[in-house]
Amino acid sequence: MITAEYIWLDGNSPAQLRSKTKVFPDDTEFNLMPIWGFDGSSTKQAEGGASDCVLKPVMVTPDPIRGGNNLLVFCEVLNVDMTPHASNTRRHCNETEETYYEQEPWFGIEQEYTLMQDGRPLGFPRNGYPAPQGQYYCSIGANNTFGREIAEMHLAVCLQIGLKISGINAEVMPGQWEFQVGPSSATHVSDQLWVARYLLERISEKYGYEVTLEGKPVPGDWNGAGAHTNFSTKKMRRSYEACENAAEALGERAEWHIKHYGVGIEKRLTGQHETCSHEEYRWGVSDRGASVRIPWHTVHHHKGYIEDRRPNANCDPYVVTKLILETVCSHANSDYNV
Ligand code: ADP
Ligand code: MN
Ligand code: MN
Ligand code: MN
Q1: What does the pLDDT look like over 19-74, one tens digit per residue?
Q2: Does the beta carbon of 231 sit less than 6 angstroms from any atom of ligand 1?
Q3: Is the minimum distance from the CB of 171 to ligand 1 under 6 angstroms?
Q4: In terms of Cα–Cα distance, which of 238, 201, 277, 251 is closest to 9?
Q5: Residue 338, pLDDT score
Q6: Cα(226)–Cα(171) distance, integer angstroms
Q7: Burial degree of 13 (CB within 10 A; 0-12, 13-18, 19+)
Q8: Residue 35 DSSP symbol
Q9: Strand partners, 109
Q10: Residue burial 118-144, b: 16+ Cβ < 10 Å; e: rest
Q11: Are 307 and 243 in contact (CB under 8 A)?
Q12: pLDDT for the residue numbered 332
């Protein structure tokens, strides 16, 4: 028998991942994974009287948890008339991406996350606090680094199934880690990020660790968790001026971006701990206190990409990438066009 783990996003805010298993006979020919369904009244996606929702497969990979010929089947959610469900942000992202495909936009997302046990991050003692921040970022050693077995196993399984992970690192707060996905198109990078988040949960579950994507898991003098979103168009990959123009353009509706960049983002974007206040917008070269940073190598090579540092770790990448596309790529007859 072959198992297919159907995965989807529920109706919570922020959306949570759900999955269930479908078993197929060994001789099944998987030309196209079949659509399936679920009880939307148990996931905040339907009322009990008309509870059916449809799962439409959009990305199929090997299942590294079960191994063998088993599969992961990442899906979008449709209504029974096959229209996109209200919770289906992927569809909007995909449509926007198609509008601007000629500009060849790429995204790379840095997903930060915090591993928790008994309600506190790994590395936090039962009572009180660990030593202040400074010794944990990119650290080694049992007194500095907590949860490496999870980060390592996660990297290994993501690479094994062909996800485009570009790196991992231990973060500034104990128990906090980061993996990066991309660069790739808006929908593709977002699909991969959701599947990578799924695998992170499944691996951590085995150890009894909770994964939180909360933007500010520990109040006070502890770094929050973001999802820095790196962005370029074909033109930006050829011209520094286009990078500056894009950074400038992102300021045009900063409030609108912040509003959709993740639940609880105001708690993280305080203006401290390598963030810019959510009430402000500014971009800068190499500036980790700016909303948008232009990396030094983009300046150095006179071309490259920019980093939107605002998205929260718990953002929906379909929403974030769609907004960036709309705000930057819509400058139809301007410099941004190819
Ligand atoms: P930081 O210095 O901010 O920690 P990272 O190395 O963690 O940066 O992440 C850089 C991200 O930029 C990666 O996700 C990578 O895929 C992405 N990236 C690299 N080149 C491009 C590009 N041309 N366009 C968009 N994203 C890119
Ligand atoms: Mn990073
Ligand atoms: Mn980081
Ligand atoms: Mn970054």
Answers
A1: 999 999 999 988 889 999 999 999 999 998 889 999 999 999 999 999 999 999 99
A2: yes
A3: no
A4: 201
A5: 40
A6: 11
A7: exposed
A8: P
A9: 181, 229
A10: eebbbbbeeeeebeebeebeebeeeeb
A11: no
A12: 52
Task: Take atom 20 of ligand 1 and give the residue whose Cα is closest.
Answer: 183
- The Å distance, Cα 183 to ligand 1 centre, comes to 7
The residue to mutate among 166, 188, 329, having the most atoms of ligand 1 within 8 angstroms of its beta carbon, is 166
pTM value? 0.97
How far does residue 111's CA lie from ligand 2's centre (Å)?
8
Residues 199-229 pLDDT 10s: 999 999 999 999 999 999 999 999 999 999 9
309 C-alpha to ligand 4 centroid (Å): 7
Nearest ligand by distance to the CA of 273: 3
Write down all domains in the chain, each with its CATH number in brackets: 2-87 (3.10.20.70), 96-336 (3.30.590.10)
Mean pLDDT of the chain: 96
Report the C-alpha gap between 246 and 306 in whole angstroms.
8
CA distance 226 to 307: 12
